[in-house]
């Protein structure tokens, strides 16, 4: 289709739009934003007549690569450390894609622009396609990898999983609350424009370095659609900026959306790239270097900062704090340590770090060994059952963290943890911005303005609280993370499949019951809570207890 005929077809589609006069529309997903019917243009005109042949060709390449991987014996050459972490990644990533698809119809009712509706409809189809090829990728891994356990049951447990609940919180943010906040600011303007760079570009590069060329094929096919999604978000943003009343909400939502994406995406992708790889070339980029290039330079400086010319206040302080979290406060390293501390509550095998890994981390993050080296040495020492308990119960100078109520990533940078009393319950937050999100941003009133569509953060959000007081063997059984023999655990703190070196439910039955820090905190009086927070803020790095002299 020529460019001229495409433009005509795109224009003709808009004539098919109408507003029914025979009933009063019901606004199921509302917004507190206001829009005028300004003639904002879709910068990437696309119609289904040209869209489907293009996507069909991309699918042919994806499924052709899948067939080639099987015939080329890729699954006997890929690094086990890498594919084990994909059990977590590929269980989570289809859910945000499906949520993104569901979020597009929310925008149809609140953005009065037929031209943008066309782009949003095509994005909806994109997102369904993405989830399909991603789940097919997981199926291929499960059918051909040496240890399929974990690939087969991960989608069942988003409601009660140690890590999956974090991904669920992230994905459901696309479809809950204010329609513009969720489907436009949080999804297209921040998640897709900023963080898909590390998700769909940087991570596939690491996959290839570990012998996995299927994930790069699938995720580069996904990323090739993101330019359309970015344009949807940018066009909606410009429409919102045309009304002065929206600036207060835009600035609120940029702060929330940026911070929640940073807490979840950096935690997950940073861990996969840094701790799921066997590629320790000194000249390859660390996650911090990738983040600085892909997000700080390409997104923040090239996309966000120019918005200041429209009078929009950009959250400079949060971008700088996010960088500080990654570079100075060891956020990614703390997350990886937390995942491996609770290995018994997960569904993949977590390889310990070796001397080669230690050397690389020290080269890329000077001072890493002094903070984390001893803990990882203990992790390796305690990896196989030999009369001891899993590492979470052993004395390795690690205090189990409290969960953040908002992002659900635990409060791992201990100095930043804050608390607040909401509806008679004390909640812990990993950072002041997460407290602000829950206590101020997600409320029916914001800075004196009525915001009834914003929603609330509610429900049983902390994984530990769901199982407080349970025996660990019963917890793992309830989550379904047990192998076919009915006793061997799916998760292991090593990669050795020798049955004599694998942990079983019998090993867990002798462990102390699971204790939720958040439940224990709420059992304290006011003085006890203040003392708890003061002690917690003095802990770390690497989860170490507070110094006795403090």
TrEMBL record:
<protein>
    <recommendedName>
        <fullName>propane 2-monooxygenase</fullName>
        <ecNumber>1.14.13.227</ecNumber>
    </recommendedName>
</protein>
<keyword id="KW-0503">Monooxygenase</keyword>
<dbReference type="InterPro" id="IPR012348">
    <property type="entry name" value="RNR-like"/>
</dbReference>
<keyword id="KW-0560">Oxidoreductase</keyword>
<dbReference type="InterPro" id="IPR009078">
    <property type="entry name" value="Ferritin-like_SF"/>
</dbReference>
<dbReference type="GO" id="GO:0004497">
    <property type="term" value="F:monooxygenase activity"/>
</dbReference>
<dbReference type="Pfam" id="PF02332">
    <property type="entry name" value="Phenol_Hydrox"/>
</dbReference>
<dbReference type="InterPro" id="IPR003430">
    <property type="entry name" value="Phenol_Hydrox"/>
</dbReference>
């Amino acid at each position: 289709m020529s460019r001229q005929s495409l433009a005509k077809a795109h224009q003709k589609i808009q004539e098919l739009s109408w507003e029914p006069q025979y009933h009063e529309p019901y606004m199921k997903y509302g917004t507190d934003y206001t829009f005028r019917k300004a003639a904002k243009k879709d910068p990437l005109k696309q119609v289904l007549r040209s869209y489907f042949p293009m996507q069909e060709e991309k699918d042919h390449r994806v499924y052709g690569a899948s067939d080639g991987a099987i015939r080329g014996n890729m699954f006997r050459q890929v690094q086990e450390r890498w594919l084990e972490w994909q059990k977590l990644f590929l269980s989570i990533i289809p859910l945000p894609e499906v949520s993104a698809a569901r979020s597009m119809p929310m925008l149809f009712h609140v953005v009065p622009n037929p031209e943008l509706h066309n782009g949003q409809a095509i994005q909806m189809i994109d997102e369904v396609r993405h989830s399909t090829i991603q789940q097919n990728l997981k199926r291929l891994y499960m059918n051909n990898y040496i240890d399929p356990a974990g690939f087969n049951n991960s989608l069942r447990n988003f409601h009660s999983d140690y890590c999956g609940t974090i991904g669920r919180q992230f994905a459901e943010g696309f479809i809950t609350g204010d329609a513009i906040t969720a489907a436009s600011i949080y999804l297209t303007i921040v998640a897709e424009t900023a963080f898909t760079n590390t998700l769909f570009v940087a991570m596939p590069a690491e996959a290839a370095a570990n012998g996995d060329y299927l994930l790069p094929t699938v995720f580069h096919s996904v990323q090739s659609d993101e330019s359309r999604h970015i344009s949807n978000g940018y066009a909606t943003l410009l429409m919102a900026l045309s009304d002065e009343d929206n600036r207060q909400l835009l600035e609120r939502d940029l702060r929330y959306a940026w911070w929640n994406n940073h807490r979840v995406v950096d935690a997950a992708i940073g861990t996969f790239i840094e701790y799921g790889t066997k590629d320790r070339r000194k000249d390859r980029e660390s996650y911090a270097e990738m983040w600085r290039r892909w997000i700080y330079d390409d997104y923040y400086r090239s996309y966000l900062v120019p918005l200041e010319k429209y009078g929009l206040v950009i959250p400079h302080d949060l971008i700088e704090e996010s960088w500080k979290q990654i570079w100075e406060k060891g956020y990614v390293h703390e997350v990886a340590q937390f995942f491996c501390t609770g290995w018994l509550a997960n569904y993949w095998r977590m390889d310990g770090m070796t001397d080669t890994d230690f050397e690389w981390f020290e080269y890329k993050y000077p001072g890493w060994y002094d903070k984390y080296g001893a803990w990882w040495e203990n992790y390796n020492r305690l990896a196989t059952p030999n009369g001891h308990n899993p590492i979470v119960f052993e004395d390795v100078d690690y205090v189990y963290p409290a969960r953040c109520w908002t992002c659900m990533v635990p409060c791992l940078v201990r100095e930043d943890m804050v608390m607040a009393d909401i509806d008679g319950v004390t909640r812990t937050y990993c950072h002041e911005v997460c407290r602000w999100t829950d206590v101020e941003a997600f409320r029916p009133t914001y800075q004196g303005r009525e915001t009834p569509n914003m929603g609330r953060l509610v429900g049983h959000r902390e994984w530990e609280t769901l199982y407080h007081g349970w025996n660990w063997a019963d917890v793992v059984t309830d989550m379904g993370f047990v192998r076919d023999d009915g006793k061997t655990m799916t998760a292991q703190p090593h990669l050795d499949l020798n049955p004599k070196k694998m942990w079983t439910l019998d090993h867990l039955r002798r462990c102390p019951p699971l204790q939720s820090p958040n439940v224990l905190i709420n059992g304290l009086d006011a003085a006890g809570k203040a003392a708890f927070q003061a002690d917690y803020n003095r802990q770390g790095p690497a989860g170490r207890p507070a110094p006795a002299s403090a």
